[in-house]
Amino acid sequence: MTKKTAHIISHTHWDREWYMPYEYHHALLIELMDTLLDTLEHDPGFKSFHLDGQTIMLEDYLQVRPEMKGKLEKYIHEGRIHIGPWYILQDEFLTSSEANVRNLQIGHRDCAHYGGHISKVGYFPDSFGNMGQAPQMLKQAKIDVAVFGRGVKPTGFNNQVSEDAAYESPFSEMIWQSPDGSRVIGILFANWYCNGMEVPVEEKQAVAYWEKHIENAEKFASTNHLLFMNGCDHQPIQTDLSQAIEVAKKLFPDVDFVHSNFNDYVDELKQELPENLQTIQGELRSQRTDGWYTLVNTASSRVYLKQMNAENQTLLEKVAEPLAAFAHQAGKPYPHHLFVYAWKTLMQNHPHDSICGCSVDEVHREMVTRFEKSKHMTEMIINETVDSLLKQIDTTVYSGKDMVPFTVFNTAGYDRSGIVEVKLELSRRYFREGHPTKLAAEMKQEPIVPGAVVDADGNVLDCQWEDAGVTFGYDLPKDKFRQPYMARSINVRLQAKDIPAFGYQTLAWVPGAAKEQSAGLVTGEFTLENDRLKAEVAEDGSLTLTDKETGHMYAGLNVYEDAGDIGNEYMFRMPEGSKPLTTAGLKAERNVVENTPFRSVIEVTHHWSIPVSADETLKQEQLDIVDFPRRKAQRSTDMVPFRIVTRYTLDRGAKRVDVHVTMDNQSKDHRVRALFPSGFTAETHLAESIFEVARRNNVPAQEWENPSNDQHQHTFVSVSDGKLGLTVANKGLFEYEVSQDNKNTIGVTLLRSSGELGDWGYFPTPEAQCIGTHTAEYAIIPHAGDAVAAGVHAEAHSFQVPWIVRQVDVHEGRLPANHAFLAWEGEGVAFSSIKMAEESGDMVGRWFNIAHEGKTLNVRLPEAATDFYRSNILEHTGDSIASANNQDVTIQLGSAEIFTLGIKK
Description:
This protein is of the alpha+beta class. A nine-stranded antiparallel sheet has the order 25-26-27-28-37-34-33-30-31. Strands 11, 13, 14, 17, 38 and 39 form a six-stranded antiparallel sheet that branches. The termini are far apart.
């Protein structure tokens, strides 16, 4: 009989913050690392330690113990401490595609500071589901194995594996395949990542321990190599492990006990893997379970955190990085150091217990500050970058008297039109000219000559303007002290038209110019209408939307639903036997609040009453640690007001209706959703996920027991019958459900209130009730065909990205008044990123094929490149790609391929 090998890997799963505030965990980390270094120094039998796959633990330790860096470097170089490949252990579904890439890039970057030693294992020990494109991402980073704890086999309370359910894989080892066909070895922690913790030294205890643990490991192992994880959440170092291993060797001579590491374990495992391993495809979201412990409702816990994160990610990857890359081409140094800081600060909010909103309140208060810090740095990068670009734009076409030019930047990655706003200074007087009060008084007397906006060809555009009065401002010169001033200003709003992807357009306010105003978009008492859409607001505030291109009408859109929630921050649970309340039939106030030639808005106000909370039973069940699926609590009979203000906005030429919602929440233990009945007959739907548009079943698997089937999304979810489709795009609203009835209604969660953390004990979280004012933004997009065929992703992605509009002086420059730095086209292809690679210094652009068939990507540069090459997600230099003129390149993309283009200039 072949001898079995017990691979014991020492580790700790380090939740940076969770059931205690960050600094509590931080203090314990310092103690753990001190103990680890001491153990490595004094016990040569303690071979190695896996530092949880995240390099941030090194940063956090050295922040307090900088004098220990030399020891860390020594043991990392010796292969006794294994680090990387990530910066943090993220929630994959609540962080953007590019954030997942930056996490891997910065993890590798940090490892390079320690001599390039890196644990090349795709480590996902506690992710709340795993992204379907992970194998492709890992393979591009030259990682061919993934280790994960969730998503495949059924798990229950405290992550116990059920032996009775049907497995997707009979073994803990399997092949995991991405939609593009990329394959890695997948290793499931079938007995969790603590199945080798606290190994006994006393012989009698050791016999019982190993008899049980070896049997449990053998149940799922496909080879004679058994994996035992010696550690758990914040588990201290087992300092007597080498002694415990010697005891085990003595007691079980037929088993080879090894203090191992992932590199050695995987190398030996590969030699024995059977050929009949099961291949699992795409996303691992615990689809084949009872549905009660998927942790999916962390997507709606503390929605405000998700919204702040989405805004920050968008500013970094869709505004700051593209602008800085183009400014670099125009001669400005690319601020890699500032971007690394901004991304690291943001990613400190990305661990699965942080961004998921499933920690104690103190944790999430600190997250708000981190979001603001990252955002402020990003805004500073944007401002400095735009200033450098404006200096190079030739605006002499607007050299006429009193013309005030301004530039509109589009960094969304797609050609687009939309409403922009800008504050324009008509005059400025610095404090050196007089006391600011006197300056302000004098400037208020300056008359404003009415005017209009014109483009570089002299065309007059529809616009609105208003007097913005006299306001304070200041310059921060690079070579002198700050320069305060007072400015006489106007606010201008207009529709920017056909701004190219990665381009800009320069316009100007011209006093005295005039244009006969076109008609507004309000065509009935409460009807908005443009050439593409007709949107009628009913008495109950719901929307009837007609797609003029297909002739199809959708009725009853955007009814609000309120349901009780007796679950926790991890999982939603509606009280048994209760039914949700809705605004269907509830009369609302309706008012037209804006009606211009380019945009019109109807505001709807609901004065609603909903239960104040759950009843008193819930509190006792929480104290008694009653598992949430077995709770009996109901909703209170006491009611409180719930005021919802909705703004429906339609722009001229728009393909969508934008919706902005403001909620005054004074209720606890509930969930609010917006409902969009499609009326289509469909078995599946589409939702954007990480580097893919995932197709998911409307009806869950047979094993599913949870009445709810909530799912993760990124920028949109869509239902189609193949001929027609209805898509809802969103900003930071990551949870949705498609109903399991014949209406195939899309339900998007806007707010969820819960009063406890959940999981392994009772941790009250009163701030997770989200009392107060909350907002939500989303858009309704009807179309022909399904979302992929209709190219709806471009509309959904552009919806996220703010316009950047800045006033500019009249001057000569090397850049024209209107310009595109880069152009691309590709049916079924989505843009992801444009930036400068830190290692090579080259520009890199990333796209992904959302279709499950080959597509063509064409990229064009306005200036010649010296070389185009195929890169990867780590942005390494790869094989050259032919270009006839060093300006145009054509790439054939494979099905669902993530493609990174390197551009040498």
